């Protein structure tokens, strides 16, 4: 008995137990026993008290290399106990050896043991218990390490005033390429004699009107 529990017996024999402002702690099996000199009768019911769904921890954006293992994880709770569904770019992730889905307590995980470029995209987790639904999203960016398909020519001799092209070819996820002269970064401006050109895998620095310095 407490201030939130009220038991009422009506003249017609009806008995009512009322729990005010129910909380998840009130869940459980409730039994009523009716007894007189002739017999005893019992009845019971199971009460589940719903609590709002919420994320204790949610998804985070991830960058990974091809071949790495990636795990997406959320910690969510609520009553009734929710079910969890995973999506990739809006499509539900199927049961497949490619993916490992785990659920233990409130923690739910999606693991991709060996990611590939096609695994890049938006991942979404949908948590639902029939009363409400909550969602979370994150982005997975799968990259290839850059590798040189062709390197710079080691030594170049040019005539003064001639345009000198320095060129490399780079394979892999598109990198950010910077050029340096004597340790200082080359910045492309209208005042300088440099032009930087990027075309697919080819990166070129044009030194215009070269001078002997």
UniProtKB/TrEMBL annotation:
Residues 52-141, 146-213 form the Ig-like domain. Keywords: Disulfide bond, Immunoglobulin domain, Signal. GO terms for biological process: homophilic cell adhesion via plasma membrane adhesion molecules; synapse organization. This is Ig-like domain-containing protein. It comes from Adineta steineri. GO terms for molecular function: axon guidance receptor activity. The keyword Cell wall biogenesis/degradation does not apply. It holds the Pfam family I-set. It comes from the Eukaryota.
């Amino acid at each position: 008995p407490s201030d939130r529990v009220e038991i009422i017996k009506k003249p017609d024999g009806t008995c009512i137990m009322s729990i005010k402002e129910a909380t998840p702690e009130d869940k459980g099996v409730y039994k009523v026993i009716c007894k007189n000199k002739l017999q005893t009768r019992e009845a019971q019911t199971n009460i589940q008290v719903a609590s709002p769904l919420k994320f204790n921890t949610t998804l985070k954006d991830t960058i990974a290399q091809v071949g790495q293992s990636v795990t997406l994880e959320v910690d969510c709770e609520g009553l009734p106990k929710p079910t969890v569904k995973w999506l990739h770019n809006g499509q539900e992730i199927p049961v497949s050896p490619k993916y490992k889905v785990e659920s233990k307590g409130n923690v739910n995980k999606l693991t991709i043991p060996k990611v590939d470029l096609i695994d890049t995209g938006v991942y979404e987790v949908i948590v639902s218990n029939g009363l409400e639904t909550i969602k979370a999203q994150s982005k997975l960016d799968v990259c290839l390490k850059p590798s040189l398909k062709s390197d710079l020519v080691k030594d170049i001799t040019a005539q003064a005033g001639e345009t000198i092209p320095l060129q490399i070819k780079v394979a892999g996820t598109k990198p950010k390429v910077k050029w340096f002269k004597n340790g200082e970064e080359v910045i492309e401006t209208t005042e300088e004699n440099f032009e930087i050109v990027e075309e697919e895998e080819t990166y070129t620095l044009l030194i215009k009107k070269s001078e002997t310095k």
